[in-house]
Amino acid sequence: MEVGIVGKPNVGKSTFFRAATLAEAEVANYPFTTIKANVGVGYTRAPCPHTELGTPCSPRNSECAEGIRLVPMRMIDVAGLVPGASEGKGLGNQFLDDLRQASVLIHVVDASGTTDIEGKACDEHDPCEDVRFLEEEIVAWFANILKKSWTRFSRRVQFEHLKFEVVVAEQFTGLGVNEDHVRQALRLSGVDAEKPAQWSDDDIHTFCSALRAIAKPIIIAANKADNPKAAENLEVLKKTFPDTLVVPTCAEAELALRNAARGGVVDYVPGAEDFKINEDAKLNDKQRHGLELIRDRVIRPLKGTGIQKVLDTAVKDLLKLIVVYPVEDENKWADGKGNVLPDAYLVPQGITARQLAYRIHTDIGEKFVCAVDGRSKRRMGESHVLDDGAVISIMAKK
Ligand SMILES: Nc1nc2c(ncn2[C@@H]2O[C@H](COP(=O)(O)OP(=O)(O)OP(=O)(O)O)[C@@H](O)[C@H]2O)c(=O)[nH]1
Ligand SMILES: [Mg+2]
Prior knowledge:
It contains 14 helices and 14 strands. The chain is α/β, with parallel strands linked by helices and 398 residues long. Among the domains are: 188 residues, 3-Layer(aba) Sandwich (Rossmann fold); 75 residues, Roll (Ubiquitin-like (UB roll)), CATH 3.10.20. Strands 1, 2, 3, 4, 5, 6 and 7 form a seven-stranded mixed beta sheet that branches. The chain has a five-stranded mixed beta sheet with strand order 11-10-14-12-13. β3 and β4 form a beta hairpin. α4 crosses α8, α6 crosses α7 and α7 crosses α8. Magnesium ion binds next to α1.
């Protein structure tokens, strides 16, 4: 699972990335601070079933903090995008290649409206413009790939009777686009898959726009929400893009809180709606005041900093993934070595018991006999659809 952080320069992408991953990345108040992409690990949260069991867990592929399982995902913070990037403007389109593996994009927008379309400081700017241009750049990136060998490819579909989705998915190899994405994009755009040779530029654009929405869905982080001008822009963004998820964020506050928590100054769990200043911490007046400001301007009005909310919403509502816990022993919820709830798997909603078995190991998928629900101890057949948070033991032929 990979998450891409995108947006025009100077909006707070690297601050968001650092806050989410605690990895180092340069942050500065001018455009194009980031040139080479930063890669790190962020987390999505799920309730950990160990709290029901009353036994501590021993996670292997994830972490557990106060009853919350943190499931890792790769995050990538790329260079700022400007209009025309897909034709080489700004830092050009190399950053787009950095986004190939991303299955979801977090578009960081400056909701305070104090940076212009190229990321330079200004008094007023409409962030809706940024949302439109960024989407168009990604669509243009898709369209350029498709157009590169359009003639040859459309002929193969029309005259050699090859399946459109097979040929298109081939074109996009390495971009995380599969045949199912193409089929969905065809349905959504209503273009004629039988006669691509007759497609106009508009048809290509309509199709690529649908493919972008399916293969690289976007969630908007309306950042710099601590700025007094942000509230109004946030409402405009939500109204203008009613079908897009928009979450207000303050990356700077999240970074400050995570650093303070790491230094033992505050008790703060990412995603929490409050934090506690540690009484033993030696803070000067300025530091204490800074933390109180974060509480008054960000945490209270926004019910948190929004950073973790963006990640959790992207996984749950946009990608429609759930977390399941495969175990070997359905009574102790442990693996063969006695590790309790060792693995947390991010899987698509609607996954069946047998599909999960295949994800664990091809061999287990092939020799699947049945699965057992760790809670009810009921047996389930191969086509049983798994619930979010399921604890599952899979029986396979020896
Ligand atoms: N007020 C406020 N400022 C922020 C916030 N997040 C980031 N900033 C500031 O915005 C400026 C740009 O931050 P970066 O994280 O470097 O932005 P970027 O989008 O990675 O910029 P490029 O790498 O140049 O594209 C810095 O001065 C940050 O401190 C926020 O939530 N609120
Ligand atoms: Mg940056």
